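[job 0412] stage=fold_complex status=start
inputs:
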Amino acid sequence: MYDESLPVPSPRDPTAWGTVGDALADAEHEAVGLMLSQRFGADTTWRSSDAPHELQAPRVHAPDPLAHLTSDVTEDRLLHAVGRSFTDMVALRETGVRHAPDLVARPRTPDEVEAVLGWCADAGIACIPFGGGTSVVGGVTAGVVDGPVVALQTRAMDRVLEVDTTSRAALVQAGATGPSLEAQLRPHDLTMRFFPQSFEMSTLGGWVATRAGGHYATRLTHIDDLVESIDAVTPNGRWSSRRLPGSGAGPSPDRMLLGSEGTLGVITSAWVRLQDQPVHRGGMSVTFDDFADALAALRPLVQSGLDPANCRVLDPGEAYLNGAGDGTRAVMVVGAESPAVPVDADLSAMAELLADHGGEVGTVRIRGRQLSTRDGDAADAWKQAFLRAPYLRDALVDHGMIIETFETAATWDRLGALVERVRAATASAVEEVCGQGIVTCRITHAYPDGAAPYFTVIAPGRRGARASQWAEVKQAASEVLLAEGGTITHHHAVGRDHRPWYDRQRPDLFATALGAVRAVTDPAGIMNPGVLLG
Amino acid sequence: MYDESLPVPSPRDPTAWGTVGDALADAEHEAVGLMLSQRFGADTTWRSSDAPHELQAPRVHAPDPLAHLTSDVTEDRLLHAVGRSFTDMVALRETGVRHAPDLVARPRTPDEVEAVLGWCADAGIACIPFGGGTSVVGGVTAGVVDGPVVALQTRAMDRVLEVDTTSRAALVQAGATGPSLEAQLRPHDLTMRFFPQSFEMSTLGGWVATRAGGHYATRLTHIDDLVESIDAVTPNGRWSSRRLPGSGAGPSPDRMLLGSEGTLGVITSAWVRLQDQPVHRGGMSVTFDDFADALAALRPLVQSGLDPANCRVLDPGEAYLNGAGDGTRAVMVVGAESPAVPVDADLSAMAELLADHGGEVGTVRIRGRQLSTRDGDAADAWKQAFLRAPYLRDALVDHGMIIETFETAATWDRLGALVERVRAATASAVEEVCGQGIVTCRITHAYPDGAAPYFTVIAPGRRGARASQWAEVKQAASEVLLAEGGTITHHHAVGRDHRPWYDRQRPDLFATALGAVRAVTDPAGIMNPGVLLG
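[job 0412] stage=fold_complex status=done
writing structure:
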């Protein structure tokens, strides 16, 4: 079953997004610095990461039976101290981290998870489930918790335990990362086809716990729809749902865990739906005078039933940043794919529809079988542009910039106004806080009834003050976003950072109900305190 | 907004499935009787419904401020006494009903719902939310509740309050039935395209509360996926979610109400997603040597990405009952549709795939714009075959038959064995209990990872004993169904009838959690007691 030829990643850098080997090289840093100083005329000198981390001493020690599963090594604790938001990166690379989990536990089985949770509950120790640690919303921040903390690292459970090629589904342990999971599925010629930007580092358990969204803008792209069943361990016992393709038996147990962000228990495995590799593929770029025009064309496209496999929309600034234009026009990238029939007719129909709505259609490309994410060509290009972004972000942090993203979703009737008002409020806050900066927007997910705008802010920051500078910008943006009818998060999750707005967004009775659920699964209230609840 | 030309149905028959006008005519009864006596050689004489209903006297009276919203008229109470399962029909048409709600309340606004619930909670009166009353699982049975009962009838709230043609969504009150809702959407050239078999009688609120499934076997066919937001009134206050096309902000509040079956509160309205009418349509019938062969072809079809708009599979007996064959071959009915591009190429590809898997493909029909369900042709044929079935069931009840259906879903790896073992166990129970009978199976919903088999039992019953006869058959079938990895219900809901198996199917901790949620929204435990919980 298990493919011994799993990729062996280069070691992870505890103060960076990902692995040591994939960080930007010196020459790249120089090029980035030059580009930034030309654009902003500010001090964008590269300073290598040498933040003064002074972690508090561990306040607890594991009891003997669990000692072999735990670590209090400083580098381990640092790696589990925070997530990977901009604020986290500033702490990791500039201002230093002072609070880390007292211990990192690495259970290898559900029984061992149960033992760790049992100990934590008895001893009143908070437990933060930790997969890839890629939260950009304060979902795994140990320092904000009062008292001792254990980070429960799930990565030791990273196997695909069973593949059902008949139903095209697999039982996957929670700690499997994207590359590990796909490598284990490859011998079966199946793919989960779930590619969040954190793909390299994040884990199945994290995806389920945070209701993650994949790279594709349309069709099956939410982890919610890929889950057949979930196994979890809570401080109050096991939770295991029945594997089903569909069911109407009461409210869905799985939907109670999806999005629970570690507050109800630890997801240990899930049966997930798989797909064949697409055989027929094609795509095109379409440009528009401006973002509003592109949105006005996107809506009929996703309402047409033509069902593109992907369709991203970049505003002119975003297009420029991504090397997809000169910054004067908005760009829509449309993809079509099918395992069964050629996509030419669909692409032609889409091109015609988009031209009718003011789009200038570029060359339509038809391609054959999609290559896997390891095998070069298109997949490699995607990897470069998409998976590489967080590494670039590390570099911009080192160059003294503020660089962060936030996202939402809204129905079409509100979308245009929301985008412009959030953009204006954010730009105004950036101007006030940083003097200058860039605010761009792209659409990451598109639905027949709405879409998900994703904003990027890049501005020269004040070293030593960037975390609070960003907090001010984020506050301004979030207020407008909520007022304009958006959700505080479409696929980044709530964590601790989004709490003020999440608390206003959700029904109050639901919040109380969720608290009651937590009191059942976690009577001592040790699971990821401060996230979603409490 | 509201279309004054809503269809005015003929009066509802309180002891039948639907309206008085649509019941079978005398000549039809004679034909049915002849057919049954030929098939079963048993006493299948038609006896018109004259069950002795002796309802208990109302035990409570509404306080003055609510008096104008309530009724204790006998016919009203009888209409709200039970649902429309076979067992209910036997009670309504043969053995008589003794227990009915003490009062029927008809609030017209959420405020009035709140007032009714407030009174019930204060006075310790059970409240059963009641839409169309079409439950086939004991979801609205008043008689099994200890103490006084108020049936909260939502039908007075049946308006489409707002249509957002940009996002293609509508705010619909919970009491709108299928025909009422579609009639109000028609002026906007939009459709909800949600056609459960109970379409004529059932309501939006009931669909949401029971996680109903529509007529289509594939694509958007579950109410879960059509809901943007939900407004509910609970005994502990309002619950109103934000209207969003997608969100990753914590566990979904809507998914907690979807499937709650009236146990958490009363759904008063929901924003639902709409669609354009399809322009391009086509279909074909494909026959197979047997049901197993048809299932073996269905799986690659739904895994192909060809994405049929519908695909039903009937076993030979089911095909015969539906006039779709001579009972020697299994029949697959495949439909394709698109609002944008012709479906010819897709249909050809599907035909080729099915032929490769042993199917004998009949004529491929290509049709134009789908007619509405009122306007004859294909839609009328569907209405006859599908919506008419419950009326036919009433007739079979009067002819002394046992006639009932049950359904499940399972992943493909288990499906073939499940179907055959459930069929064998059911046939064996029918043989034992009734001496003879028919057990047929069709697939009502098909997924890439599994499908939903739907069983029909028709057997000559013993007048006066049919309810217990059926209970014995159902018990045998349900045990095997659960043991073979199915869900106790795919789209019929849990109600009271499925409790023994539902309780074994769901995670125990989830059951406790759901109870905790209910304690928040309904501290007095008045909402639909016995359903899902307690």
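[job 0412] summary: The first strand of chain B starts at residue 70 and ends at 71.
[job 0412] exit 0
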